[in-house]
């Protein structure tokens, strides 16, 4: 199939959040990674200057908002503003990991809805559309008044999980809010389904209190969209082990692992943590971490957006099955 001609040149740029992923995306798309200066003044203010001419071009800015979140987010705003003022024809913010997504509602009095604020700021800065992956809450797409292309990492996980060939597999969500994601994985993997109910003690502490479903003598795939302290994952793994589960794997789209996560994973019964390179993932001695590459998934989406083609086929995982939550 020949692609229609698009008058504007496709260009890929990146901030400082995940240059390795951006380079891999540019390599897949078949364009050089754009030349942009991203630096800071002595007082910490970010400075951006596009060294390449971007006038009239189709610009994609790759920048996950991983820690330090506020710095990378502000850097993204400035890059978008600079591109707008340099007369880019269209600006797409490629945000593999969308920070602040957990603050998507007022769950207590006098708190903000920061995910909506970030959506407004991206639009105000000058973004024409957003490309993201595995949002913490899908309704965040509705916070934007510009087009949002929301991808799933599930097809990438599916290809890898087929090589594991676990027996008597049960897909488990460690959080009731992840039920749709777990059900989708269960369907495409022809596996059982279970839920671990948890109680949140604090922002960094959770306690698994009950299991709904059969996990005894079964291999387990824990699925979640993100982990930071690994509290939810490790507490779920412990209660699963106590209830007779065999081998436990964890598939997490975004692994933003801090020191607390490292100590928890080292003593966890999780055999393998499978994640993606949506954010930089640290290697932890004694912890089996597999990082899957999503550059091809994001790169193909970028090409299809550029040429005005559908991205829905990127949800296919094989055998005529399509991933959707």
Can you tell me about this structure?
It is built from eight helices and 16 strands. The protein has 325 residues and is an alpha/beta fold. It folds into two domains: 10-152 and 295-316, Rossmann fold, CATH 3.40.50.2020; 154-292, Rossmann fold, CATH 3.40.50.2020. Strands 10-9-8-11-12-13-14 form a seven-stranded mixed sheet, with helices on both faces. A five-stranded parallel sheet has the order 1-4-5-6-7, sandwiched between helices. Helix 1 packs across helix 8. The chain starts with 9 loop residues before the first strand and ends with a strand. 44% of the residues are buried.
Summarize the structure.
The chain has about 325 residues and is of the alpha/beta class. It has helices spanning about 20-30, 70-85, 115-125, 155-165, 180-190, 230-240, 260-265, 295-305; strands spanning about 10-15, 35-40, 45-50, 60, 90-95, 130-135, 150, 170-175, 190-200, 205-210, 220-225, 250-255, 270-275, 290, 315-320, 320. The strands form 4 sheets. A 7-stranded mixed sheet has the order 10-9-8-11-12-13-14, with helices on both faces.
């Amino acid at each position: 199939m020949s692609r229609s001609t698009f008058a504007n040149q496709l260009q890929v740029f990146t901030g400082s959040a995940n240059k390795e992923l951006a380079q891999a995306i540019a390599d897949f798309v078949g364009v050089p990674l754009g030349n942009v200066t991203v630096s800071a003044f002595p007082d910490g203010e970010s400075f951006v200057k596009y060294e390449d001419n971007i006038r009239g071009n189709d610009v994609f800015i790759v920048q996950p908002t991983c820690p330090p979140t506020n710095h990378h987010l502000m850097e993204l705003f400035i890059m978008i503003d600079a591109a707008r003022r340099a007369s880019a024809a269209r600006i797409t913010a490629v945000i593999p990991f969308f920070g602040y997504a957990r603050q998507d509602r007022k769950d207590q009095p006098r708190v903000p809805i920061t995910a909506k604020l970030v959506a407004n700021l991206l639009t105000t800065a000058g973004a024409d559309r957003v490309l993201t992956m595995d949002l913490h809450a899908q309704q965040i797409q509705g916070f934007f008044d510009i087009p949002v292309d929301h991808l799933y990492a599930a097809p990438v996980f599916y290809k890898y999980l087929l090589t594991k060939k676990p027996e008597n597999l049960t897909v488990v969500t460690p959080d009731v809010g992840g039920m749709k994601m777990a059900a989708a994985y269960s369907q495409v993997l022809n596996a059982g389904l279970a839920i671990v109910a948890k109680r949140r003690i604090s922002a960094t502490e959770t306690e698994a209190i009950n299991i709904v479903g059969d996990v005894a003598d079964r291999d387990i795939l824990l699925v979640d969209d993100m982990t930071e302290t690994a509290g939810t994952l490790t507490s779920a793994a412990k209660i699963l082990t106590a209830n007779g589960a065999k081998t436990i794997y964890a598939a997490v789209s975004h692994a933003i692992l801090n020191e607390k996560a490292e100590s928890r994973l080292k003593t966890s019964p999780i055999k393998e943590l499978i994640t993606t390179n949506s954010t930089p993932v640290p290697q932890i001695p004694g912890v089996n971490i597999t990082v899957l590459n999503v550059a091809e998934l994001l790169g193909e989406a970028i090409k299809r957006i550029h040429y005005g083609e559908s991205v829905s086929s990127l949800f296919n995982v094989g055998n005529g099955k399509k991933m959707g939550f």
